[in-house]
Amino acid sequence: MQTPLPTPTLRLPTSTRVVVARLAGLALAWTAVFLLNEWVWDAAFERWLGLDLSDQAVGALHFFLYDVTKLLLLLVGMIFAIGLLRSTINPERVRASLEGRPLVLALVLAAIFGAITPFCSCSSIPLFIGFVAAGIPLGVTLTFLIASPLVNEVAVVMLGDTFGWGVTGAYIIAGLTLAVLAGFLLSRFDLRDQVEDFVFSTPIAKLHFEGQRPTLEQRVKAARTEVRDIVGRVWVWVLIGVGIGAAIHGWVPQEFFVEHVGADNPAAVPVATVVGVPLYSNAAAAIPIGEALYAKGVALGTVFSFMMATVALSLPEAIMLRRVLKPRLLAVFFGIVAVGIMIIGYVFNWAA
Predict the structure, then answer these.
(1) What CA–CA distance (Å, rounded) separates 228 from 239?
(2) pTM for the full predicted model
């Protein structure tokens, strides 16, 4: 009787297993710190220091510390994860595969991906940098950057509870349409030279060379170097941007908006958009303000223009994006999105 051959067991090399174990431990630690971030700052201010978060200065400081921590964690975590993922894919192949597909399909997929990622405008920037560096067309990455803060599960749930599901459905369609159309318009131009050079020369971009597949250790090293390089370039802009947002968050009263975007003002939509741009917030914070404005008689389209401008276009975002995009592209991007937001506001006001 012939003895059956033993089934071969696939085992990773010892060095690779060590790297995988370290990555798993770091991922768990990063997740724990990220999830506990808000609780720690709340506890530090209210329980340990006995401070009142409704105080303007205290609230602004709390906002600054919490948001800076969150954004730096996102920058480090996202850039490392995307860098590690990109190190397995040749950027030229990514670019070639996208070039063979219809542009509209790529834009729609980018908008949908943005909708399922619950990030504010600034938190989406690490992903945006990674996509651009990977060779994804700029118009497609900008579509993601618009859709991610505008339409996500947090916004959908809160909007449905606040304004009803019919209005929420119209908001989702409007937000995704804006993201796709803006990306389509920006795709008509060759804007690659309007992206800062360092984005295209990251360590991940240099890792691939013909005829050799990088090892896991090489990928981790390249991703770690990329984190150091990119975060080292943008961390100051994070502090400046969030600082401005914290100041506005703490000292600009809600009554200011009601006074300038009331139903009697025919220029309410542009005013609401312009007023919303300097603010820095996510959907969870912007929607309650929008609900209060709507309850005070501000038209629905005007409320939506304000909320969209707040979450999709913010001064802190502009400051951080400036480190990645050159002034001309940054101005074109903000201009196209702002005009789109105003059109949506007027359409909703007309239809209401």
Answers:
(1) 17
(2) 0.61
